[in-house]
Amino acid sequence: MKTQIIEKINNHEFLENAYRKDSAAFKQSFIEAYPSIKDELLAKAWYERLNYKQSDISWGIKNEWKVVAILAAIVAAFALIPNFIAVEQDVFYAKNIGFIVFPALMVYFVWKQHQPLIKLIAPLVISLISALYINMLPAPLNSDSVSQAYFHMPLFLWVIFGYIFIGGDLSATGKKINFLRFNGDLLVLCGLMLIAGGIFTAITINLFEVLKVNIFTIYFNYFVAIGLSIIPLFAAYLIENNGYLVHKVSPVIARIFTPLVTITLFIYLVTIFFTGTYPAANRDYLLLFNVLLIAVMALILFSLSEVAKHTQQKSNQIILFVLSVLAIIVNGIALSSILYRINDFGFTPNRLAVLGGDILILVNLLLVSFNLYKIVKGQIDIQKVESSIALFLPLYFVWSAFVAFGFPILFQYN
To answer: Residue ranges per domain, the chain?
Structure first.
């Protein structure tokens, strides 16, 4: 797209169509092309348009806050169910955390993006069937297969939400990347809200303790439950209307932590080599390595926007490539540990779930790493790396569905 923008910089119709088709990819390509076309009048106009900064906080389009308030009320009511019926809180939230968060987000984005309501039918029906299914499963107790179903159901719903977010256009790589970036921004803003809420909670409880009034149980059962349940919705609402406040935070965090994580992984590998101590095939440790791979891909994704702005700085590209290689090596060691464990003791729900997720994420990162190598060599552009990150989203959906719905039956609820 960069070459096309340079060649057709005076063709306003082409530029507008390209922008509307995939705004994120267009903006990134335009930024890369701008040094070559900065003297063109139309290029200057587009540069100002793409880099416009809103000065005031926006509360969205007309009546949007009412829609968000209604959805928040429904979500809060659902989150408070354990306070009114005989159900164990931990089990209820383990089963329903995904249903507290994602259906409201689905409805909000269908409304926000003016999508036909018919697009909500299939995702909401699937969500409803999934809710009935997961709540009919027995309490986990010693059932690892049921525990894995609980754990993977939110991931399953997350991908369905992604389908809504991109408007059902599975071929639009740019929209998938926008979805992944949105999730990074959502985590950042939710994290800030949680920190603020934690401070407020500590102050409130201690203020009442001064009066010798214990509000701990009531406060956590009601106020904290409501707050935690509606934070994702309000964070999405703020991001959609004030994205300029958050969009720059994730790349900055990525730029700070990318070299730190790279150095840490290098030292970790050196420590393994000199001590001869390898990661144990423990489920929690292996799950940690899966989280590591996801974190590395997130760092790469959010660092790419900075790399695009500074394409002349080869060091940024090299650091990302080295980071991906180190993560692959570390996770390869962990993967070998669980394979030995499976060879000695056989498959269990936990081992199979961790192994499947590990292989899937590892293959995804291998493809990303290969494309990063090509970037360092100057053979491809950054969009190819982003595409390789988004490519596996349907596979994550299939795997999470298999674990959530298939594991309890496959392992007979053991």
So the answer is: 1-52, 64-243, 248-410
